[in-house]
Amino acid sequence: MFLGSVRPGIKSSAGKSKGRGLTGHGNKYLARVSGEAAVTAGRSDTIFGECYRRIARRRGKKRAQVAVGRSMLIAIWHILADTETRKRNHIRQLQALGFTVTIEPAA
Length: 107
Description:
Blueprint: E1 11-13, E2 16-18, H1 28-42, H2 47-59, H3 61-96
Antiparallel strand pairs: 1-2
């Protein structure tokens, strides 16, 4: 995942690049928002805040920002994926009982 504002250093020797370069993949806007959310979480009394402070002490604020931002995105993905799975399962169960299911967005 590419996190926009955090850029690792690239060293070159004899015309060869060394170190970890950026992949160029990922949404740079989402990366910035997740970074800001991670810094904000670092000031809160949550599990993400504890994680941010622990990593920031050992590895630095920028690495903590990337790590916690990524953890937050993974947690959000799991919540949304679980919601979709539950919705599909409920629809299947109703259809198995003989109901015709039509889903409309809420007003």
